[in-house]
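In the design runs reported in the main text, the only information available to the sequence generator was the tokenized backbone. The following block is the verbatim input for one such run; it is reproduced so that readers can re-run the procedure and compare outputs position by position.
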């Protein structure tokens, strides 16, 4: 009998490889079909998203920015500290005592060689010396010794319902500790 080639069967069975290839082809066809359609955001969606971001940003600004009264209090306190420090250095270099008069609207030195004034018309000042109580400034004398040591004091500035209170360092005239309600 001569050798004859076998005929392939009439029905082909599919293998797992054939099924995977057909899925890939289907996916490619599906992507080709959807390629004409845009998958981007519409203009209205972009505008709504930007509006939400803007509203959140505007709502957070007051939390990040200091209030007007806080700026006023801090500026006045910086002026007081600079005034005390400069007169501390002047007392040390001149070798004489300096007397700072405390008033509700500012500080004043009225001595021949060291005259000076710092005014704070928008805030009210109170002061407490060691062993005393906090009271409105109305002519109390804050001493700076010839060696440059400042008499310890607690200074409180008020503006409406906000206040800033600092303890002044006797050796440097700087802020030692700060308390506030802004």
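Verbatim output:
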């Amino acid at each position: 009998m001569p050798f004859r080639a076998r005929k392939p069967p009439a029905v082909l069975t599919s293998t797992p490889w054939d099924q995977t290839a057909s899925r890939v082809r289907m996916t490619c066809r599906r992507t080709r079909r959807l390629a004409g359609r845009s998958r981007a955001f519409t203009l209205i969606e972009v505008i709504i998203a930007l509006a939400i971001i803007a509203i959140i940003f505007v709502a957070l600004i007051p939390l990040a920015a200091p209030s007007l009264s806080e700026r006023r209090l801090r500026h006045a306190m910086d002026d007081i500290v600079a005034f005390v420090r400069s007169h501390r250095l002047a007392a040390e270099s001149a070798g004489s005592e300096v007397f700072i008069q405390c008033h509700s609207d500012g500080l004043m030195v009225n001595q021949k060689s060291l005259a000076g004034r710092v005014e704070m018309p928008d805030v009210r000042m109170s002061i407490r010396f060691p062993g005393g109580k906090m009271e409105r400034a109305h002519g109390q004398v804050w001493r700076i010794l010839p060696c440059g040591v400042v008499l310890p004091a607690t200074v409180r500035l008020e503006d409406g319902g906000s206040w800033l209170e600092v303890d002044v360092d006797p050796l440097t005239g700087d802020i030692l500790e700060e308390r506030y309600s802004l």
